[in-house]
Here is the input.
Amino acid sequence: MINILELIQNRRSYRGRYEAAPVPREDLRRIMEAGLAAPSGCNQQTTSLIAVDDPALLEKLKAAIDPPVAQTAPAAIFVLTQEICAYRDKRFNVQDYSAAIENMLLAANALGYESCWYEGHITDDDRIDRKLAEMLDVPEAYKLVCFLPVGKAAQKLGQGPAKKPFEQRAWWNGFGNTTDKIERKKSQ
Here is the structure.
């Protein structure tokens, strides 16, 4: 069993070439089930998924993405969202699909696959998401927000990006506190 904390620390966005070997549907299902197991604001379950493993359809979809990405991926998962009001005009669909995507990235990695979260690339002003949604017969009530290629890496993964030190981004008992002491300004 893979240690989840090690998996989180070592997962990387993969933008290299993929092996041609197909991804078994059972593995795609396990990845999607992990995504759908993510928390959902007020349990609205606003995230839906479409896995594509048909080579001809996948080639058409990838051809619509310009500039091209993940051209050699043998499978992909497309993430859909619905903007559903949870309460008092509050919507949590962005948080919902973000949690689902992270779960799927971790699940894919745990199963030996690589992927990358392509969102801005397809939802930018050129609206590639709409072209993809049309090809996948996505109803208007849903918005396609992410393309996750899935496959085995054909290239060795490089070193991940440098992360800022823990102390620059995480503190104890208040903003900027790097010690275990509670450092508070005295109000007079």
Q: What stands out?
A: The chain has a mean pLDDT of 90. The beta strands are 47-52, 75-81, 85-87, 90-91, 143-150.
